[in-house]
Hints:
By secondary structure, this protein is of the alpha/beta class. It has helices at about 55-60, 70-75, 80-100, 100-105, 125-135, 150-160, 175-190, 240-245, 245-260, 275-280, and strands at about 1-20, 20-35, 40-45, 120, 140-145, 165-170, 190-195, 215, 235-240, 265, 290, 305-310, 310. It has 10 helices and 13 strands. The strands form 3 sheets. The protein has an 8-stranded parallel β-sheet with strand order 4-5-6-7-8-9-10-11. A 3-stranded antiparallel β-sheet has the order 1-2-3. The longest helix has 18 residues, at about 80-100.
Amino acid sequence: xxxxxxxxxxxLAEVFTISRGSRSQADVLTVRITDxxxxxxxxxxxxxxxxxxxxxxxxxxxxxGNVTDRAQLADVLPAGAARNAVDCALWDLxxxxxxxxxxxxxxxxxPGPEITAYTLSLDTPENMRAAAARHRHRPLLKIKLGTxxxxxxxxxxxxxxxxxxxxxxxxxxxxxxxxxxxxxxxxRLGVALVxxxxxxxxxxxxxxxxxxxxxCADEAAHDxxxxxxxxxxxxxVNIKLDKTGGLTEALALKSAALAEGYGVMVGCMVGxxxxxxxxxxxxxxxxxxxxxxxxxxxxxxGTPLKFDDAGVHPPQAALWG
Length: 321
């Protein structure tokens, strides 16, 4: 069995901005695992917020050696981007080797399309109003906020897309006072959910202040080990494979979160259809699906995911799984 890791860059359709900064391309690591002439692949997006770089994650993967069993991965790699790409590549390898789809191997029902959010990046109120108007036909818009001037942006997006369902992602950019002041306006403007309003690790106040609309843990939620610290503070858990360390843990986290009464959101980093493909399986029946990475790209994989009015469709076998 041979494993390789490659850095690839994909241009974005336009500059994408959140409260932490801007980017014009998606930098990903592609892992390929070959066994007896069959190759499975997976993708990850190292994230600086979690102390990851392209070089550090590639080094983790290259140091793995001959790991052939997904069950071994949790013992040799922490939850994060490196384990995600390897785990998903092993799933794909097994699917290609056996002639069965990953959903069958995992004992899941046949997947179908899921309506996905489309993300509007952080910008001036005027530009965000224009972006919302361009995408007003989409049933679910996600707004990147997290600054002291968010009220004008939120109002502008609602004016641009009066009928769209809206969710808000503050990316840890608010404090308890700002969130408490904004919450009534979020409700007034029809916001359905807010992601990570306070910094992870500094979010205990969420258990003490009113939560008039569902609050979703993103940076505060990684894998099943995160769940005990979310109690009383969050209503929804955002599952991202680059945080969980792959499809294996993502499915386990989904089951555990639902069993504890949380809603489930399935999100993504800015990556290609290869990164989204396994997440579509996790997103089945989720409260919110946010797998719009390929919609933000100017270029994608050779066999991209299909997006239409029904949402994001499960991957073709030629792409993954």
